[in-house]
Specification:
The protein is an alpha+beta fold. Helices cover 33% and strands 15% of the residues. It has 14 helices and eleven strands.
Length: 410
Amino acid sequence: MVMQLNRRDTLALGGGLMIAACVKSTGTSLTEGTRSWIPDRQRESMIRGVMQKYKVPGVGIAVIEDGEFVWQGNYGVANIDTGKPIDDETLFQAASLTKPLFAFVVLRLIDAGKIGFEDQLADTHRPDGLVDSKWNNSITVRHVLTHQTGLPNWRRADFEAAVLEAAFEPGTAYSYSGEAFHWLQQVCEIKTGLGLHDLVDQFFFTPSGLTDMSMLWLSGRAGREVQGHIIDENGEAKRAELQFSDEHGVRLNEVAERWKRPMQTWRFEDFEKAHSEMRPHTESRIANYPLWRFNRPGTGVMINSASSLRTTPADYARFIATILRNTGPAAISNDLRQEMLSIQTDVSDAGPNRPVGLSWSLEPVDGGVAFDHWGFNQGQHISSGLGDTAQRKGLVIMTNGSQGNAFMDE
């Protein structure tokens, strides 16, 4: 379940402050390239104090220096009920930090000649509810990666016939859209014949050596995942009663076992079919959901190029380091890397003047550019990631509490 936020919301909630917030917590600035971003004991004590202040049960932090992952800090617990501590193996929901990684895979597909920037998505696939209009039919891969499709973040999920329609001519304005990323996911699946997880595995996880990452909840790894936490009526953190991935994933995995086909090999159409065969839900919040709602990407899809990545902070930092170095078997062409980190659209109408490249938000710095993104799943899984090409430094913060954003800002 992805909370429905537009880009104005994410900037107001903290995405626009992300660079300042991340830098503040390490005691340096983007122009102070000589100081390490690894927190000392005093700053680690501060981190724990701010966690307690905002009732954030668990935090993972990873630091990149000189283009390499160099340090991970683990704080608090993955599950407040069991007291299981955060450690190097703990998996967080990356939420919308999934988007830049998927965008990187799309660039790898472009390098391989399997898709093009100017390919129109409707020529390959038309998702349910897509209005047959000139604007919708003209949406391209570039429009998706630069959030210029005109599509909503997520269409309304309260009725079956919700339509998908661009609000403006694609390429003329900014509109943050998870729906667009999910549509591009389906196009890439059709063009490659691979489900999303296998696609990302073939074009990024395996060549980069980051095979512990996953594009979805998997039953054999469920014990490593953080649980989501909220604040109760007494102002204390508590484990949210509905852990959607656990509830829903178990049921889909039962279908996978009957089919003898693991979920990571499925394409989106397989998930649609599996929903019609899965054991009904009994949890009160979702027991009465109609089947179509589980196929709506903003409400229940288990695998989604916009939000479903599972990772350790260290592995996501290694992804950012890949961009900073742009060497090795998972690298993209220098021209594509330059385009990814060059301004594609201005979002001054959506809050702070944060230009956007190919998925990343950008901020010019002396000698290079800082790029960042922010993630928010279910109001409980809140994360951020930052890279600075001039200093070849980076920072990843992942949390499992509903006030994770306030923690990161402070």
